[in-house]
From TrEMBL:
Protein name, UniProt field: DDE Tnp4 domain-containing protein
InterPro entries in UniProt: HARBI1-like, HARBI1_dom
Subcellular location: Nucleus
Record flagged with keyword Hydrolase: yes
Domain DDE Tnp4 span(s) in chain numbering: 109-275
A GO molecular-function descriptor: hydrolase activity
């Protein structure tokens, strides 16, 4: 983080982090509170270690961390992770077509486990298939690795599909209340008819007219293999976004020893700061770093309607047509 970015953060959060000094003790400066909270995210050091490093009491460090993350969520959410409008969706879809050759795409969706210390008296609610305790971060990411919609806090035992179905995003897409643009034809392919705007996900998600997933199985036709390649290529942006998030904030590589409600706030703050700091020049370095470390946040693990199958078939036809194909796709399957 540059000095200019730190100053901008401080100008946004400073008033919310300021406390009154008393006759017995001087209040911690907002800049120091912010530095402690960012260090906790970036290093993954324990709160006790931070208290020793900054020569502060452990309770002071803990309070500062919670205070800063709550302030980030309160003050920066509307600016750096706002609810998408119809114009926002159209902009996202245009960028997906230009950068990842996938038209009418609202974003790539996936869920990741945030590993936590087992909460007291929680039973198996947070226990996941990786045999760790966790909460789930589900995110919809645009073509530039920016988080557009996030859902934080579901129990670790919940599947991607279950998390999605219970989320505001899932309910809003089902009830058509998220200002998604109306269906439109794919580029230079009006003969296929009007196609809905869609999200792309992996096989853990349900197939819907507005949510595409790969064709299942191994012995697929060439055309279906092409579709799966094109979808997977677009879907990788969410994996990359999680990689950048975890490379920058290394706390996501270790078990977080906070209460679940405080972990939720930390994760939201981390995603907002990810958007605040996002820079194309830094993305590849962070992705390379994540690959070198060989460490990744663990992935979370109905019968589709005829309309959903028809939409997937239409996209499959488009990707195998002169209008929608890319020159290198046959070499990739």
């Amino acid at each position: 983080m540059s000095a200019e970015q730190m100053d901008e953060l401080l100008s946004l959060l400073g008033p919310e982090l300021t406390r009154q000094s008393t006759n017995y003790r001087a209040a911690i400066e907002p800049k120091q509170r912010l530095a402690v909270a960012l260090r906790y995210l970036a290093s993954g050091d324990s709160l006790i270690s931070l208290a020793f490093s900054y020569r502060l009491g452990c309770s002071t460090v803990t309070n500062s961390v919670h205070m800063v993350y709550a302030a980030i969520e309160k003050i920066m959410m509307e600016r750096f992770l706002p609810r998408p409008t119809e114009d926002t969706w159209k902009e996202v879809a245009q960028c997906f077509w230009e950068k990842w050759n996938f038209p009418n795409c609202l974003g790539a969706i996936d869920g990741k486990h945030i590993v936590i210390q087992a909460p007291p008296l929680s039973g198996s609610q947070y226990f996941n298939y990786k045999k760790t305790f966790s909460i789930v971060l589900m995110a919809l990411v645009d073509a530039d690795y920016r988080f557009r919609v996030i859902q934080v806090g579901d129990f670790g035992r919940t599947s991607d599909g279950g998390t999605y179905a219970g989320s505001d995003l899932g309910k809003g897409m089902e009830t058509k209340t998220l200002h998604v643009p109306t269906s439109t034809s794919l580029p230079d392919a009006a003969h296929l008819g009007e196609m809905p705007f869609v999200m792309v996900g992996d096989t853990a998600f349900p197939l819907k007219p507005y949510l595409l997933r790969p064709y299942p199985g191994k012995n697929l036709t060439h055309q279906k293999s092409i579709f799966n390649y094109r979808l997977s290529r677009a879907r990788m942006v969410v994996e990359n976004a999680f990689g950048i998030l975890a490379s920058r904030w290394r706390i996501f590589h270790r078990r977080i020893n906070l209460l679940p409600k405080n972990v939720d706030t930390l994760v939201v703050a981390g995603c907002i700061l990810h958007n605040f700091l996002l820079a194309p020049s830094e993305n590849q370095r962070l992705l390379d770093e994540a690959e070198q470390q060989g460490r990744h946040m663990a992935t979370v693990r109905n019968r589709p309607s005829r309309d959903a199958c028809n939409v997937r078939e239409a996209f499959c036809t488009f990707f195998n047509s002169p209008e929608g194909s890319v020159t290198w796709q046959d070499r990739m399957v």
